[in-house]
Structures are given as structure tokens and as C-alpha cells.
């Protein structure tokens, strides 16, 4: 993505490239255990992983890449093989697994269930953390380097199971997204540096405090209208800038609004300002609130019906928004079901998913079911910073939030009062504060449309 | 909790009586449970004050500490408790049975105890207290300057083991009565209030002439129903304070004996009502038939009990203060596995639990309306025997997808696959399933009678399954650099044995 | 009878169930809620402290403070990166005499703080200081256990608690409550210092929690980050002005006067009159109230009488949006009434639950 950018002076591109160069320099010269790279949404994390993998394979010998899901592994292998067609890449498969089409098309990729079946050890081997846990290092010697992708979504115990394979690691991830998940609740390990419920980065830094943390400073995904708010609400101590200006990213709705229809009005707001907030009348509702589901489905339909055109660096002359470039983000699976059930057939290509499944993905326009909409209480789950951050940072152009009125008073009634464990550093920002920041921003005439 | 529980609570509130949340009992109940009701001195980290203990309803034994701030007396109390608990535990190690299990990576014939002990305490606070009591006693030395009776550290290790096991869903070795009852009944009060054993039982079995509301209110009066421990009633503490003071200052043995007698009387008055409640709780739980998987889980509990008793007989090192990195990760994996298995087993054992999954769309119940018991389908090599079953159900199961593997709790050995779902105009649905097994190994029709469901049969099917995959962990010595490297192995020290207990 | 002033615990409690206007008004007016509960015929619940807990708490505090806070200085050395020098202790309670009013001690505290700011006496630990904080138009007097001397140019609020930290773990709920109290103290200290022309940054946004280690009487100290608690407490204090507005909306004859005529004479205001005034204040009862509010059992009876489902817990309330009566919810669930459009989804789910339970228990839906 760096091609054709102005490499001089203090442009976003120059800053982003300098940051990547810094990371590669660290990797080449470190005498410690490795480097952590924090990346805000859409800051070129995958590009960095691909570059670092090729760089390490060339300069320091075989490198192993740890990703979290098979989907992520395949995406990564595809990018790696595309960008470096002469680099031999091994893909370890889960038992009974096969290479998907987008990976199989590359001549330089080999897939096998066992390391020994990949032939001579490929310079880059990629698979999931779960699979790595069962891999025996060749001839008992570990890899010099591992790259751990989406490291903030990896649980400490998953890292424990595979960290014996490598001596140094480059951890790459977005600290603002959802924390890893466990099905049991226990305070047994609170305060221990090796608490298995922590994420892979925190546990590694706790034991290797001198490991440097670098940051990718530019979000190429988020438009100028979103970068400031997302940064303020979710990355208060690690500022980043948008890679584009407001002039680069524009949204047009050629078909005019239907009178004073609130959905059309909120889309107009979002097209003009990058944010829209459709506020339905205050009412406590069930988790699945039919009116919110309907409003989201209608908004997706109107985006297409109004022939939405987006202009950006990739398409300066503008291109028509397609269903594939729209996402509807929700909190619970049954909310996704309710929205899908209301989508008309021509919207089948729209992605409707929970925050957990939208992590790492990118769209032009997102429509968001606010996690606190209609709720009578604000549980830790619904307040979780990462969930809101994922939902509000997937878009390249505009984001429309749909919620029932009453969220701000809900937040006032439910200040955060979490139990406090000794020796567990607080996470910033906490969900309550992040929600306040977002609502203070959205609750303004520039964005707000009442229904 | 789901809307089913919410609805049950509403009904209970309206009727003034608890509503069942289960049709079977999901916990094991031993023939001879050991009931232990501890009381602690307020303000201290872990100062035992008294306990009412025993495995016989008619013979509760009262143990007290007349000077709870005195270290020697505390150890004397723990030794007393050990004298009651350890023989009870020991009595289970004599009768054993053989079974085939894995040890050191190979199949072997092993033995396990035919029965195992079960400890019942009133509430989660009781478990937390036993955990601390275990922590403060298991490192003690039985020789040297700070020697304590051998039963003290041994009891400490057992208490630690029991409280560790209590964290595992599905384990019945140490149960808190309020939690065991709350799994099976919904009251017309909140979960917070259900933490009071007296008021919880007041809802489940209100005394004659009272409803649950009234029974619960009466139960909240500490003068009528003293708290079930380990915390005491602050008002009672004033009486206790005075007595303890007088005891400490008493100059003569007869006076001390008289005061001790008074203390015992007072403490017994605080504990006796809870003793009765505990056994009423046992009766209530016994009134439910055990779920089908309860015996299997108890068998696992028995195996673990046998193994730990053997460990204590050999090495017998106390458990570490905190888990090491590998131990913690391993334990988390076991906890997650136990949680998933217990959840599944409860649903398979109990239609009321399965109903939660039906409501969430992961299961459905229908009546068989047609079958094709001789159906053959084309397979990769040869034709496959796949009988077809069509059910009619009153709602579309939203979270089932065509091709999903499903199973029925009443036909657990018969995997089936969802072939088609047809919505009917009246809101009902017809569902086609093909049977993929459970046909007495027949490869072609006819299947023996009973293998294929008959029209008219009511069946529940669900997608629930445990996706259990074994996990590999490094050895402690191979703890990686990301987790601090190998830990120093634990060796008992003089300091451990001499830890302050003030 | 003088009104009970806010203390740090009460202010911190504002961040638990701040939606309850009744409690907000009663606390703002300094009403003794336990006595009020008694007058309303309710038991206040077990909020008295055990004599054992009191003794133990005092003994532990004395131990930490013995020998010129030697233990505290040792803990600060272990916990802070900056060098910790010896310090002198000024005991505000002792200096002003046991019977000195909080006002006197507050003035003395301020005098000493001036010296600390001016660096005339920067190595001074303030024992039993009294800080003031303006809340909803009244002055609250706060009594932190201690304020550390200036270390690395920061003053640390010290909170001494008698719950133990065992193998490095303390009760997380009690720790959280201690942190909320500490946040109130930090806030008050910062306002006092800025009032004296100093920078608010002089107060650390961490506090030192001191509690017994394991099963011993040895003190154990940990620094705890307060930034989130400060944010939450400040937010609630900003909103608090509304308590006065709420009280202003009371009837002209409303009264919460609990005093009696003469020494033991009849009450100035009748029980009925008190009850009417209390009922005119909106309350928000939830089961969690039982843990901290003396009036909670009174409100619980009112919620019971009103048929409010929320008294069964947050999950139950959350499952019944728009249905605020248990009997109504059940009659809708049993098909004895029909819901309006807004409540259709909720009622359909309840009906599904009723059908499933009836089937599993082999009984009729409403039986």
C-alpha cells in the first residue's frame, strides 16, 4: 500500500513508513526478546506482518507466524504469497483441513497437516496458535523468530502452549479491540503476571519489561471524521492520525431523501459528516429489539436504493456502494439473526455480524446496533470498551449508530464499579468512559436524527 | 439464566412458593454426607470460632475455640476438626474396585474407591472459609519448634483439595447448600436474598400456615434464624465479646469451665438452626431423582479422591500458595472443559434445562409424523443405510442449519443430520432428519425394532455437543520465556511452618 | 439534632445506585437513614459493626502508625520508585485534642498543608487530617487515615484497612470500596490545594492501601491507580446538584425531621407525616441496595407491594421491558390478556417460556 505515496517531509505516508522501518530496524538489531507493535484500526497491520515475515526470512532464517483463526491464516498466506511470489510459504492445516481456493492458486504455498510433510522447512510457516501447540520443533531447535498476529486477541495460555518453539517474537495487534474470552469466571489468578486469562502481549511484557512497544501512527482505514473520535475514545494515550483528509473521502447520495424519513435523514447526515445517530424513542427492550433491527435493515436498503457513491484514494472518481462493502455490526448472534431476517434478497451480500466476528475487517459504510440500546442496566459485557471500538472503527467512509434514547442516563445510573484486584493494572479507557465520550460526540445535531 | 428462569421466578413470587428449575437432581448426594458449618471471628482473616460437624443428623458435634485470638487454641481446634474429618475421609479408602484407565500414557487396570466423601457447607462463604483454613494450616510442620499435631497440615491439604475441586462445575465433593438448592429451585426473591439458606428453604418448603414471602422475612431476623456463617450476627457478637472477655480473665478452673459451658451453649444456639436447615436441604435434594449423568460424574470424583489419597500417602507435599504458569493454564483448560461437559450433561439429563436451549433455538421437540425406515442413499463408494424421520414441531428452530448434526437425549447413540425444514401455514414446522447410526450396525434394512423412531413418538433433538479437543501443555520445567521461564520448584521451609497466625 | 454530614463512604456510595433519588435527597439532607427506617417500621438490616472487627481495625491502625509511622515509611520505600526520606508526623487528632471539632481539625490541616506547599515543612506526614469538600451546597468533612509527606513531589493518600491480603490477593470488592473512598479524599485534597494556590498535581493519582499480610498483623502495602475512580466520582459529584432540585420539588409541608420534643418526648413530626414525605421521593429499589442502604428493607416492601419485577433482580427486570407488574406479566404470559404492539415481542417470549415449562412439568400453562 506504500506505492506512489509522497515519501518526503512530514506526510502521513512518511510517518507510517518511518514507523515500519523502525520496527524492522528493531527486529534486526534487538538483543532482547523482540518487539511489540500496537496498531490502531486500519493502520497497515497486515502489511507490516507480511513485510516483517519476508524481511526476517531473508535476513535471519526461518520464521513462524502465529495467527488466531484459520480464516486469518488463509488471509495472511494469500497476502504473503501474492506480495512475495518467490518466497516459499508453508501452511500447516488442521486435521482434515484443505487449502481454500485463494491460497491454493499460489504456486509457492504448500499445505500439510504435519511439519515434516511440508518438505524442506519453508522459510515461512503459518498456522493457528492452536495448531502450533502440537508442533514439535525440527531437530529440537526452536525458530529464531515468531510473528504473533492479533496478539491482543490471543489468550496467555495459548501463547504458553507454543512459545517454547521460538526465541524471539514480534507481537502485532490492536490493543483497542475485544479482549480474549473465557467460559469460566474465576479470580484465582488475578494479580499473577502469568494469569492465563490475560492477553498474550500483557503477559509477555510483564515478564520482559524491557521489550519495546512501537506504534503504527497512521490509520489508512478511518476517515478524518472518525480518526479523532476513535482515538480520543479508545486510544487516549496513543494518538494517531488519519492517512487521508476529508477532501479525499466523500460520500454522495444521488437519489434524494424521501421527504422527512428519519432513516434517509440520518444517511444524509452520515454522508455529510461521517457519523449518523438514529435515535429511536426511549423504551426498555429485549436484547432483540425489532424496531432497531428493522431500522438497520432499512438503512442498508436505502443506502443501495439511493445509489450511494463513495470517493476515495482507491476510487477518486467515485464508485457505487455494493452490498459487500456494507456491514451491520451487532452485539449478540440473535440480533444478527433478527437483522438478517429483515434484509431483502438484494441485500444478501451485506455482512451482518457480531463485534467479535467483525474484528480485523473493513467496510465502506457500517451500520451499528448500539450495545446499550434499550437496556435497563449496563453490564460489564455491554460496556466493554473493545466491543464498542470494533463496531465504530470498521468503516472507511461513514458509520451510522442506531439506538434507543436513554443511553446517557443509563450511563449516569451505572457508573463503573468493578471489583479491584491488587497488582492488576487498570485498562484505559474503561468502557464506561469510552461510552460517555462517544455519546457526548454523537448526541449533537450534526449527527443526530430522532425517529 | 434465561427467560425460563425469569418466568419461574415470577410464578414463584405470585404463588408464594418456589418453582422447580429441574426435573432431576444434577448433583450427587452421598449416602453419608459430612455436614460442616463453620463460624469465624469477625474482623480477622481466618480465625475459627466454632463448627458444628458430623455425618449423622442426630449427632452434631460442636467444636469451639474459647480464646479465638490464641494461636495454640486455634491449632487445637483444627486438630479437633481433623480428628472428626480425617477418619471420615479414611473410611472411604478401604473398599476399592478395578477399572481400566490411562496412566503414564498407557492403558492400565487401576483401582478406585467404591465410595468417596462428600462435604456439605451452608454457603459459598463456607467454602471460602475452608479454603483459608486450608491455606493457613497446610504448610505447618509436625516437628521442630513450632510443631503442630500431624492432623493439622493433613487436614489443611485435604481442605485445600476439596475447595479446589469445588470450583469445578459438576463436581459434588464439596457443595454449598444454597448453590445446590438454587440449581433446582427458583424463588420469588432475588438471587442475593437466596444466599440466605434459611430464607431460601423458607421459599422451597414454607412452614405450615406461611407462604414463601413470610417465611423468608422471618428467616431474615437474626434473633430467630442466626446467620448460617461463617460470619456471625454483629448483635450476637456483643454477647460473645463479653463472654470471651470474662473467659480470658477468669482466674479459677471451675469458673473457666462454667464460662466455657456458657460459650458452648451460646455458640450451639447460633449453629443448631443451620444444622437442621442443612439436613432439610439434604431431604429436599434427595426428593429429586438423580440425573442420568450424575453417577458418571461422581465416578470421576471418586477417582480423583482415590488418586489424591494415594498422593498424600506417598509424596504428600502441600499445594503451592499460587498456581505456576503451566499449572494455571492446565487448570483453566480443565475448568473450561468441565463447564462445557456439565452444561451439556444437564441439558441431556433434564428436559427443563434442555428447554433453555429450545428457547434459544439450539434444540426442538417434535412428534414423529412419518418415517422411511428402509431409506438408502448414494454414498462415495456404496449405498448407505440412512432411515428418514419426519417430525412436526410448533416453532421453527432459528439457530439450526441444514446439514447440522443433531442428537436426541433419549437416543444418545444415534447421530442424525438435519435434512430439511418446511414452515407450515399455521406456524408449525416439519423437519426431516436422516439417521446416521444407532442401527445395530446394520448396513441395510431392516433395522431391528426400536432403532428407528415410530410415528407418534415425541422426541427432542439438539445441536449441542462438546467440541472437546485435548490440549498439549509444556512441563513446568519448560515454562517459556514469555511466562517467566521455569519456576523454582516448591520446597517446604521453616518459615512456612512458622507463619504467623494472629 | 445536627444533620449527619457526608463522609467519604457516603460520597463513594453515590457511585452505587446513583439513580435512586430518595437516597440522594436523604443523604444530601443528612438524614440518619437507620433511624428513619425505624420510624417507618422497618428493620435497618445488619449495618452495625461487630466489636471484634472494631477492635481489630483499631489495633491494626495503631500498629501501622506506631513509632512515627515507621511501618508506613517502610511500605512507601518498597512501593515507590522515588527515594523516601524520614518524615515527621503531625497527629491532627492528638494536637487539637480528642474533643476538637472537625472544623478545628480542618483548619489545622489547612495550616499544615500551607507549610507543606511552601516547602517549609515538606517532610510532614499528616495523621488524622480533616479535609473539606463542598457537595450540593453543604460542606462535607472527610477524615482520611493519613496523607504522606512529599515524595518525588507527590503527596499520597493512605488508606488503612483491616481486611487481609493473602498471598497477594485482597477481597476485590472491599478493595474497590477502599479505592472509591480514596478517590474522594484525593479529590478533596486537590480542591483544597488548588484553593491554597498550589497545583492539583501535587496529589498522586495513586493511593497506598495498607492492610494485614496473610494471617498476620504485619502491614502489607500496595499502590493502587485511582484514575478511573476519580473520573467516576467527579462525574457523580457534577450530577449531584440535582438532589437539591429534587428536594425542592417536595410539598411545602414535607418534613424529614426525626427529632423529639424535649429529651424523650413525642416526635416533632409524626410517623405518618415522615412516611408521606419519604414516599413522595422516587426510589429505585434493586436487590443490591440490601448490601449498603439502611432504608433498603423499607423500599423492598414498597417494591413488593407495587409488584415490581425488578425486586427479583436485574436479569428478571431486563427480561421484562415495559412490564412493570408481576401479576400483569403473568396474565399476559398465560394469555389472559393481550399485549399492545410495544410489548408483543416480550410477551411472545414469556408465552414460549410458559409453554415449555408447562410441557416439561406436565401441567397446564397457568396451573
Automatic annotation (TrEMBL), chain A:
Entry GO MF terms: 5'-3' DNA helicase activity
Keywords: ATP-binding, Helicase, Hydrolase, Nucleotide-binding
InterPro entries xrefs: Coronavir_polyprotein_1ab (IPR050534), P-loop_NTPase (IPR027417)
Protein name, as recorded: Helicase
Annotated organism of origin: Streptomyces radicis
TrEMBL record, chain B:
Upper taxonomic lineage: Bacteria, Bacillati, Actinomycetota, Actinomycetes, Kitasatosporales
Acidic residues bias locations: 493-502
Lineage: superkingdom: Bacteria
Stretches for region Disordered: 467-502
UniProt-recorded name of the protein: Uncharacterized protein
UniProtKB/TrEMBL annotation, chain C:
Domain of life: Bacteria
Source species taxonomy: Bacteria, Bacillati, Actinomycetota, Actinomycetes, Kitasatosporales
Protein name: Uncharacterized protein
Amino acid at each position: 500500500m506504500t506505492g506512489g505515496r509522497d515519501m518526503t517531509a512530514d506526510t502521513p505516508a512518511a510517518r507510517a513508513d518511518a514507523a515500519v522501518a523502525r520496527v524492522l530496524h528493531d527486529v534486526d538489531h534487538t538483543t532482547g526478546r523482540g518487539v511489540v507493535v500496537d496498531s490502531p484500526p486500519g493502520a497497515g497491520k497486515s502489511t507490516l506482518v507480511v513485510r516483517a515475515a519476508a524481511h526476517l526470512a531473508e535476513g535471519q532464517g526461518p520464521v513462524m507466524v502465529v495467527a488466531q483463526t484459520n480464516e486469518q491464516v488463509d488471509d495472511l498466506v494469500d497476502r504473503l504469497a501474492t506480495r512475495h511470489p518467490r518466497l516459499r510459504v508453508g501452511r500447516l492445516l488442521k486435521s482434515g483441513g484443505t487449502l481454500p481456493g485463494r491460497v491454493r492458486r499460489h504456486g509457492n504455498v504448500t499445505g500439510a497437516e504435519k511439519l515434516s510433510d511440508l518438505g524442506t522447512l519453508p522459510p515461512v510457516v503459518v498456522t493457528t496458535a492452536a495448531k502450533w501447540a502440537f508442533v514439535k520443533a525440527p531437530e529440537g531447535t526452536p525458530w529464531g523468530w515468531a510473528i504473533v498476529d492479533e496478539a491482543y486477541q490471543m489468550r496467555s495460555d495459548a501463547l504458553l502452549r507454543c512459545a517454547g518453539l521460538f526465541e524471539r517474537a514480534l507481537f502485532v495487534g490492536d490493543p483497542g479491540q475485544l479482549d480474549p474470552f473465557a467460559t469460566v469466571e474465576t479470580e484465582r489468578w488475578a494479580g499473577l503476571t502469568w494469569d492465563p486469562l490475560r492477553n498474550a502481549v500483557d503477559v509477555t511484557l510483564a515478564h520482559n519489561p524491557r521489550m519495546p512497544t512501537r506504534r503504527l501512527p497512521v490509520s489508512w482505514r478511518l476517515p478524518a471524521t472518525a480518526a479523532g473520535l476513535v482515538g480520543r475514545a479508545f486510544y487516549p494515550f496513543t494518538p494517531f492520525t488519519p492517512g487521508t483528509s476529508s477532501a479525499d473521502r466523500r460520500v454522495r447520495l444521488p437519489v434524494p431523501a424521501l421527504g422527512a424519513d428519519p432513516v434517509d435523514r440520518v444517511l444524509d447526515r452520515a454522508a455529510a459528516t461521517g457519523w449518523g445517530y438514529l435515535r429511536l424513542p426511549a423504551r426498555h427492550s429485549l436484547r432483540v429489539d425489532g424496531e432497531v433491527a428493522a431500522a438497520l435493515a432499512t438503512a442498508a436498503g436505502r443506502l443501495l436504493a439511493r445509489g450511494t457513491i463513495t470517493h476515495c484514494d482507491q476510487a477518486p472518481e467515485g464508485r457505487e456502494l455494493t452490498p459487500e462493502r456494507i456491514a451491520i455490526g451487532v452485539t449478540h448472534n440473535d440480533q444478527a439473526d433478527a437483522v438478517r431476517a429483515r434484509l431483502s434478497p438484494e441485500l444478501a451480500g451485506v455482512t451482518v455480524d457480531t463485534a467479535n466476528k467483525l474484528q480485523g475487517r473493513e467496510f465502506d459504510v457500517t451500520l451499528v446496533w448500539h450495545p446499550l440500546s434499550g437496556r435497563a442496566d449496563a453490564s460489564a459485557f455491554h460496556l466493554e470498551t473493545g466491543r464498542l471500538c470494533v463496531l465504530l472503527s470498521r468503516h472507511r467512509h461513514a458509520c451510522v449508530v442506531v439506538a434507543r434514547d436513554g443511553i446517557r442516563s443509563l450511563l449516569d445510573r451505572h457508573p463503573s464499579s468493578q471489583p479491584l484486584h491488587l497488582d492488576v493494572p487498570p485498562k484505559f479507557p474503561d468502557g464506561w468512559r469510552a461510552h460517555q465520550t462517544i455519546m457526548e460526540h454523537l448526541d449533537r445535531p450534526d449527527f443526530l436524527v430522532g425517529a | 439464566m434465561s427467560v425460563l428462569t425469569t418466568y419461574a421466578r415470577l410464578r414463584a413470587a405470585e404463588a408464594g412458593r418456589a418453582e422447580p428449575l429441574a426435573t432431576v437432581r444434577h448433583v450427587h448426594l452421598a449416602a453419608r454426607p459430612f455436614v460442616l458449618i463453620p463460624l469465624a471471628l469477625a474482623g480477622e482473616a481466618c480465625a475459627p470460632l466454632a463448627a458444628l460437624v458430623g455425618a449423622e443428623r442426630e449427632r452434631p458435634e460442636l467444636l469451639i475455640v474459647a480464646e479465638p485470638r490464641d494461636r495454640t487454641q486455634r491449632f487445637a481446634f483444627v486438630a479437633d476438626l481433623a480428628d472428626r474429618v480425617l477418619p471420615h475421609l479414611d473410611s472411604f479408602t478401604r473398599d476399592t474396585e478395578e477399572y481400566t484407565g490411562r496412566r503414564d500414557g498407557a492403558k492400565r487396570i487401576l483401582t478406585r474407591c467404591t465410595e468417596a466423601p462428600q462435604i456439605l457447607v451452608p454457603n459459598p462463604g463456607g467454602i471460602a472459609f475452608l479454603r483459608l483454613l486450608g491455606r493457613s494450616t497446610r504448610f505447618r510442620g509436625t516437628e521442630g519448634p513450632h510443631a503442630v499435631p500431624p492432623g493439622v497440615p493433613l487436614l489443611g491439604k485435604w481442605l485445600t483439595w476439596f475447595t479446589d475441586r469445588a470450583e469445578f462445575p459438576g463436581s459434588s465433593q464439596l457443595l454449598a447448600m444454597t448453590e445446590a438448592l438454587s440449581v433446582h429451585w427458583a424463588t420469588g426473591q432475588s438471587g442475593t436474598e437466596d444466599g440466605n439458606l434459611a430464607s431460601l428453604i423458607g421459599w422451597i418448603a414454607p412452614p405450615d400456615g406461611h407462604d414463601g414471602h413470610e417465611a423468608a422475612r422471618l428467616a431474615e431476623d437474626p434473633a430467630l434464624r442466626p446467620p448460617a456463617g461463617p460470619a456471625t450476627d454483629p448483635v450476637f457478637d456483643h454477647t460473645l465479646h463479653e463472654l470471651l472477655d470474662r473467659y480470658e480473665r477468669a482466674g479459677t478452673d471451675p469458673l473457666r469451665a462454667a464460662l466455657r459451658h456458657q460459650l458452648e451453649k451460646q455458640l450451639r444456639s447460633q449453629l443448631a438452626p443451620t444444622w437442621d436447615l442443612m439436613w432439610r436441604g439434604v431431604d429436599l435434594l434427595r426428593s429429586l431423582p438423580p440425573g442420568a449423568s450424575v453417577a458418571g460424574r461422581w465416578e470421576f470424583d471418586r477417582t480423583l479422591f482415590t488418586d489424591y489419597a494415594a498422593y498424600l500417602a506417598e509424596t504428600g507435599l502441600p499445594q503451592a500458595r499460587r498456581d505456576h504458569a503451566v499449572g494455571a493454564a492446565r487448570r483453566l483448560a480443565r475448568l473450561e472443559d468441565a463447564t462445557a461437559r456439565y452444561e451439556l450433561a444437564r441439558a441431556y439429563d433434564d428436559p427443563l434445562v434442555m428447554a433453555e436451549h429450545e428457547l434459544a433455538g439450539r434444540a426442538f421437540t417434535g412428534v414423529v409424523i412419518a418415517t422411511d425406515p428402509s431409506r438408502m442413499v448414494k454414498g462415495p463408494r456404496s449405498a448407505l443405510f440412512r432411515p428418514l424421520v419426519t417430525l412436526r414441531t410448533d416453532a421453527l428452530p432459528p439457530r439450526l442449519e441444514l446439514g447440522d448434526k443433531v442428537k436426541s437425549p433419549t437416543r444418545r447413540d444415534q447421530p442424525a443430520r438435519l435434512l430439511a425444514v418446511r414452515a407450515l401455514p399455521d406456524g408449525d414446522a416439519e423437519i426431516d432428519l436422516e439417521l446416521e447410526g444407532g442401527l445395530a450396525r446394520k448396513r441395510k434394512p431392516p433395522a431391528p425394532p426400536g432403532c428407528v423412531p415410530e410415528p407418534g413418538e415425541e422426541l427432542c433433538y439438539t445441536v449441542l455437543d462438546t467440541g472437546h479437543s485435548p490440549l498439549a501443555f509444556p512441563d513446568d520445567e519448560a515454562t517459556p520465556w514469555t511466562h517467566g521461564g521455569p519456576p523454582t520448584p516448591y520446597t517446604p521451609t521453616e518459615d512456612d511452618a512458622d507463619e504467623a497466625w494472629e | 439534632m445536627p444533620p449527619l454530614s457526608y463522609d467519604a463512604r457516603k460520597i463513594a456510595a453515590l457511585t452505587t445506585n446513583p439513580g435512586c433519588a430518595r437516597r440522594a435527597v436523604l443523604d444530601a439532607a443528612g438524614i440518619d437513614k437507620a433511624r428513619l427506617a425505624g420510624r417507618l417500621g422497618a428493620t435497618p438490616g445488619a449495618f452495625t459493626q461487630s466489636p471484634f472487627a472494631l477492635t481489630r481495625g483499631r489495633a491494626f491502625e495503631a500498629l501501622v502508625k506506631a513509632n512515627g509511622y515507621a511501618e508506613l515509611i517502610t511500605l512507601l520505600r518498597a512501593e515507590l520508585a522515588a527515594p523516601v526520606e524520614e518524615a515527621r508526623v503531625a497527629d491532627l487528632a492528638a494536637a487539637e485534642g480528642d474533643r476538637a471539632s472537625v472544623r478545628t481539625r480542618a483548619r489545622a490541616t489547612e495550616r499544615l498543608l500551607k507549610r507543606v506547599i511552601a516547602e517549609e515543612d515538606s517532610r510532614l506526614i499528616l495523621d488524622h487530617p480533616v479535609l473539606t469538600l463542598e457537595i450540593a451546597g453543604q460542606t462535607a468533612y472527610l477524615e482520611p487515615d493519613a496523607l504522606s509527606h512529599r515524595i518525588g513531589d507527590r503527596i499520597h493518600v493512605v488508606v488503612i484497612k483491616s481486611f487481609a491480603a493473602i498471598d497477594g490477593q485482597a477481597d476485590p470488592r472491599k478493595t474497590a470500596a477502599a479505592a472509591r473512598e480514596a478517590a474522594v479524599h484525593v479529590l478533596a485534597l486537590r480542591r483544597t490545594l488548588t484553593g491554597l494556590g498550589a497545583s492539583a498535581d501535587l496529589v498522586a493519582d495513586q493511593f497506598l492501601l495498607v492492610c494485614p499480610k496473610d494471617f498476620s498483623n504485619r502491614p502489607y502495602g500496595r499502590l493502587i491507580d485511582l484514575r478511573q475512580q476519580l473520573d467516576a466520582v467527579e462525574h457523580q459529584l457534577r450530577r449531584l446538584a440535582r438532589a437539591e432540585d429534587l428536594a425542592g420539588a417536595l410539598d411545602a409541608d414535607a418534613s424529614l425531621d426525626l427529632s423529639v420534643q424535649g429529651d424523650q418526648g413525642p416526635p416533632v413530626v409524626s410517623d405518618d407525616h415522615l412516611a408521606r414525605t419519604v414516599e413522595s421521593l422516587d426510589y429505585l429499589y434493586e436487590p443490591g441496595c440490601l448490601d449498603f442502604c439502611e432504608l433498603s428493607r423499607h423500599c423492598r416492601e414498597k417494591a413488593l407491594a407495587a409488584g415490581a419485577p425488578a425486586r427479583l433482580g436485574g436479569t428478571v427486570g431486563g427480561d421484562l421491558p415495559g412490564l412493570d407488574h408481576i401479576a400483569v406479566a403473568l396474565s399476559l404470559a398465560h394469555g389472559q390478556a393481550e399485549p399492545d404492539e410495544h410489548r408483543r415481542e416480550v410477551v411472545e417470549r414469556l408465552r414460549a417460556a410458559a409453554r415449555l415449562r408447562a410441557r416439561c412439568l406436565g401441567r397446564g400453562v397457568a396451573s
